[in-house]
Design goal:
The protein has 253 residues and is an alpha/beta fold. It has helices spanning 2-8, 21-27, 66-78, 95-102, 150-160, 189-196, 209-216, 231-236, and strands spanning 29-35, 40-42, 46-48, 54-58, 86-91, 107-113, 121-122, 135-140, 161-168, 181-182, 203-204, 218-223, 245-250. The strands form 4 sheets. It has a 7-stranded mixed beta sheet. Strand 3 and strand 4 form a beta hairpin.
Length: 253
């Protein structure tokens, strides 16, 4: 058991074959934790992180992280989005959500990414291949920190979002930073890991992330959904207290 835990606590765990999930569900079955995405109980959540491991971060049943479980709870408990007839664009679709969203009969669901095999359409987020005002909902989570020209990507999301549409644009945010830290001269994997925390990140967003979105034209609301969840359930679901969900809407002018 200790050997298995050591192996499956490493950073590449999220990429392991989903064929192993039935085994992991049995191996870690219990009642200490609950994954709201599959509704199952587990004896533990696994450690996960790039560089520094976070305890109780990764569900062995869905391979969901804290942010995935938080978003799923928000969508199910606080919105009617999953039950509404919507034209949806999912940029860089997460495997965790893909089947659930694809099988949602209420959604006209399109996936988009530069390389992902889950993408219906391959392309560049800074030059989206859709007409203006196309989508009711755009989901783009933990993508913008990878994009050199993030303002162009934000502008494209704004362009293709309907005037009464909504976007969910999660990114990692360092609350200790007033201003986003970025340096375009840092191009090596080593330097980006050292400065941005991950080899494929090109910045660390600060509290001005909201300002960046507003400068594009979005109306921005950071939802602290953990405030609506009992503390014992925050632990049981393996969530991060105070983690925010950035919700954007297109300003109507």
């Amino acid at each position: 058991m200790k050997i298995i835990l050591k192996i499956f606590s490493r950073n590449f765990l999220i990429r392991i074959s989903y064929y192993l999930l039935p085994i992991l569900k049995i191996l870690y079955s219990g009642n200490k934790f609950i994954d709201p995405i599959d509704g199952r109980g587990y004896s533990k959540f696994l450690s996960y992180g790039y560089g520094k491991l976070r305890k109780n971060a990764l569900s062995p049943g869905t391979l969901s992280l804290e942010r995935h479980r938080l978003l799923w709870l928000y969508l199910n408990k606080s919105t009617n989005l999953l039950n509404s007839k919507l034209k949806v664009l999912h940029i860089a679709p997460e495997q965790i959500f893909y089947k659930k969203f694809k099988n949602n009969l209420n959604w006209d669901y399109t996936t988009f990414d530069l390389k992902s095999p889950l993408a219906d359409i391959k392309g560049d987020i800074t030059n989206l291949s859709f007409k203006n005002n196309t989508f009711d909902l755009i989901i783009c989570n933990h993508v913008l920190e990878h994009i050199a020209d993030d303002r162009s990507a934000m502008s494209e999301i704004y362009r293709v979002l309907k005037k009464d549409g909504m976007g969910i644009l999660q990114v990692p945010i360092d609350d200790n930073l007033d201003k986003t830290y970025e340096d375009s001269t840092l191009v090596s994997n080593k330097d980006r890991t050292k400065h941005f925390g991950q080899y494929d990140h090109v910045r660390v967003y600060g509290r001005d992330y909201k300002d960046r979105l507003e400068n594009i034209g979005f109306i921005v609301n950071f939802i602290n959904y953990t405030d609506e969840i009992e503390n014992n359930l925050i632990s049981k679901y393996g969530l991060i207290k105070g983690e925010l969900i950035p919700i954007v809407k297109k300003s109507i002018t």
